[in-house]
Amino acid sequence: ADLANARLSAQADLATNYFGLRISDDRKRLYEATVAAYARSMQIAQNQVDAGIVSRVDLVQAQTQYEQTRAQLVNEGINRALLEHAIALLMGKAPSEVTIEPERTQINIPSVEAGIPSSLLERRPDIASAERSMASANAQIGVAMGAYYPQISLGATIGFLSGGVGSLLQIANATWSVGPQLAGTFLDGGAVKAQVEGARANYDATVATYRQTVLTAFQQVEDALAQQRILVQQEQVQRAAVAAAREAERLSLNQYRVGTVPYTTVVQTQAAALAAEQTLLTIRLNRMVASANLVKALGG
Q1: What is the DSSP string of 102-154?
Q2: Range among 60-69, 151-160, 222-231 rated most confident
Q3: Distance of CA 239 to CAs 49, 162, 230, 243, 273, Å?
Q4: How many CA atoms lie within 13 A of 292 on its CB side?
Q5: Cβ(144)–Cβ(192) below 8 Å
Q6: Nearest Cα to 253, choosing from 41, 58, 69, 38?
Q7: Is 175 helix (H, G, I), strand (E, B) or coil?
Q8: Residue 169's pLDDT is what?
Q9: Close Cβ partners of 237 (under 8 Å, ≥ 6 residues apart)
Q10: Separation in Å, CA 271 to CA 83, 112, 265, 267, 276
């Protein structure tokens, strides 16, 4: 059960890191598209400056936003590399041996039903491990109590009556005995009682651990189910927010071209649109991780 639990944890970690890698690919594509869009905006600002319509402040603002987004793009490459290395480690390979080509995320997030509690108790390896530990501790009580009772063994012994070294090996001094031997504990200062009480205390502790493991399992399932349900709603709302932010960006850029709004308005709407897209990707990653956690909480 401990081995199965370790394997399940490793599988969940692998899934989580893989999901993070694919979202990193999506985030990198977002930054690349944004950098290209900011380059076009910077050219628009340059044209406005060349025409004498606006000051160089607009151009500097556009350049600043452009370079900041390029820095985010570079940083995303670092993040992806770390995730790829983590996947290699979970595969038992050196990071240099694993290369995962970028691709667009096409992962359908499953909707997993929890089932009935009894099946959860049967499937969770950590619950099985805690139950076996509890049974083992219960058996140890019987082992400790066995010290109260005499131990009988059958065998033959030989000894020597003389205490002198010279006659130590003379067969005439030897005494023989064949038959049962009886050993019992009468005066032990309460050592056996303490051992029994210790075994019972250890059993009580394993019972408490088992109970806590079961309760934790139910909590993890309920948490993952709640996340799965709520994140679906959050993603729908965020998609609407992204659409609105992109429309605001488009309108502000058109208005800047005709000179009705300052470039700061363009900068603000573009930053808001990028942040909305980043949040959407984060929510999608959270949905994937919640799904993996739910599978793990259900025991695989």
Answers
A1: ---------------HHHHHHH-HHHHHHHHHHHHHHHHHHHHHGGGS-EEEE
A2: 60-69
A3: 35, 100, 14, 6, 11
A4: 20
A5: yes
A6: 41
A7: strand
A8: 47
A9: none
A10: 27, 36, 10, 6, 9
10 Å Cβ neighbour count for 236? 10
What are residue 128's phi and psi, to 5 degrees? -60, -40
Eight-state DSSP code of residue 94? -
Cβ-Cβ contacts under 8 Å for 28 (sequence gap 6 or more): 73, 76, 77, 80, 102
Average pLDDT for residues 90-100, to the nearest whole number? 93
Whole-angstrom distance, CA of residue 249 vs CA of residue 196: 75
Only one residue has tokens 């005439």, namely 172
Alpha-carbon span 142 to 202, nearest angstrom: 13
Query: pTM of the predicted model, to two decimals?
Result: 0.76
Q: Which pLDDT belongs to residue 160?
A: 47
Q: How far is the C-alpha of 112 from the C-alpha of 228, rounded, in Å?
A: 9
Contact of 4 with 28, CB cutoff 8 Å? no
- The percentage of the chain sitting over the pLDDT mark of 90, rounded to a whole number, equals 52
Residue position matching structure tokens 């394993």: 206
Stronger pLDDT, 160 or 5, i.e. the higher one: 5
The helix/strand/coil state of 155 is: strand
Find where tokens 């905006």 sit. Answer: 41
The whole-angstrom separation of Cα 37 and Cα 267 is 12
In b/e form, how buried is each residue of 16-38, taking b as 16+ CB within 10 angstroms?
bbbbbbbbbbbbbebbeebbebb
Please tell me the distance from the alpha carbon of residue 13 to that of residue 7, in angstroms, as a whole number. Answer: 10
CA dist 287 and 20 (Å) reads 11
Nearest to 108 by CA among 296, 294, 291, 266: 291
Do the Cβ atoms of 28 and 73 come closer than 8 Å?
yes
